[in-house]
Amino acid sequence: ICFTGVLDPENFRDFKLVKRTQLSHNVAKFTFALPTPTSVLGLPIGQHISCRGKDSQGEEVIKPYTPTTLDSDVGSFELVIKMYPQGRMSHHFREMRVGESLAVKGPKGRFRYQPGQVRAFGMLAGGSGITPMFQVARAILENPKDQTKVHLIYANVTHDDILLKEELEGLASRYPDSFKIYYVLNQPPEVWNGGVGFVSKEMIQTHLPAPAADIQILRCGPPPMNKAMAAHLEAIGYTPEMQFQF
Fold first, then answer.
1. What is the mean pLDDT of residues 82-98?
2. What per-residue confidence (pLDDT) applies to 3?
3. Catalytically annotated residues
4. Cis before residue 107, ω within 30 degrees of 0?
5. Could you tell me the pLDDT band of residue 245, with boundaries at 50, 70 and 90?
6. CB 183, CB 175: distance < 8 Å
7. Spatial CA neighbour of 33 closest among 2, 1, 74, 68
8. H or E element in which residue 144 lies
9. pLDDT at res. 138
10. pLDDT value at residue 112
11. Which residues have CB under 8 Å from 149's CB, separation 6+?
12. Mean pLDDT over all residues of the chain?
């Protein structure tokens, strides 16, 4: 069966919001219907979409997001959105109600994934930077022919800030040999067996695959984190070819 993707790289297309699930005080999952129950978004693994909305001043704003669904999920796609108090696009999502439409364009992005292109991925994610990592990890793990190993370090401020926690734990328990997660928190709870503070060089050396020609380190997080991680990776000996920043 050939499923054609409904995304248009040149023009925005409207998709109707059919469900909104509040996950925490500032995070919600938005489910958008595709034109038919068998439609697929048509988003290559590791690519993202551009979403258009209005900020609190009524000004147009366009921002990239990575759906948490794959093209194996037909008929709809989901976005897990963290809404920041000052975020311009956050305002649009906060105000969005079921029945309204979101303008979407894509696919976008430089990352192209082919099963087996590396032996292992190391992933460094911060906050909502987890969404492209989750998409790539899910695609790898749910493909029985793909033997790629995935090692994730995921940094947040507090335990409540961990996005997609249930989904990540689900993947880790279903694919224990292929998927490992190490959480790092700035403000950990009393009882905590993950990392504390910021992601250090030592954490990377302990939890991610060592520099090699057949591994790649993916990173996605706030700019200060990306900058710090780039410095750590360089110091450890990862070449620019071994790294990709979303």
1. 95
2. 54
3. 48, 65-66, 220
4. yes
5. very high
6. no
7. 74
8. none
9. 96
10. 87
11. 119, 120, 121, 178, 179, 209
12. 95
Length of the chain: 246
Taking the C-alpha atoms of residue 77 and residue 29, their distance in angstroms, rounded to an integer, is 10
Half-sphere exposure of 182 (CA within 13 A, CB side): 20
Binding residues: 64-65, 80, 82, 89-90, 131
Structure tokens at 76: 């709809």
Token representation of residue 80? 């897990």
Report the alpha-carbon angle 228-232-233, nearest 5.
115
pLDDT-based confidence at 2, cuts 50/70/90? very low
Query: How do residues 167-201 score in pLDDT, each as one tens digit?
Result: 999 999 999 999 999 999 999 999 999 999 999 99
Place of tokens 């996005």: 163
H helix runs in the chain, sequence order: 88-95, 130-141, 165-174, 201-207, 223-236
Helices 165-174, 130-141: axis angle to 10 degrees equals 30
Binding residues for FAD: 64-65, 80, 82, 89-90, 131
Please give the pLDDT value at position 5: 86
Closest by CA position to 65, among listed 14, 13, 136, 128: 128
Q: Are 175 and 167 in contact (CB under 8 A)?
A: no
**Six token digits for residue 13:** 């297309």
Residue 206 — left, alpha, or beta (φ > 0 → left; ψ -120 to 50 → alpha)?
A: alpha
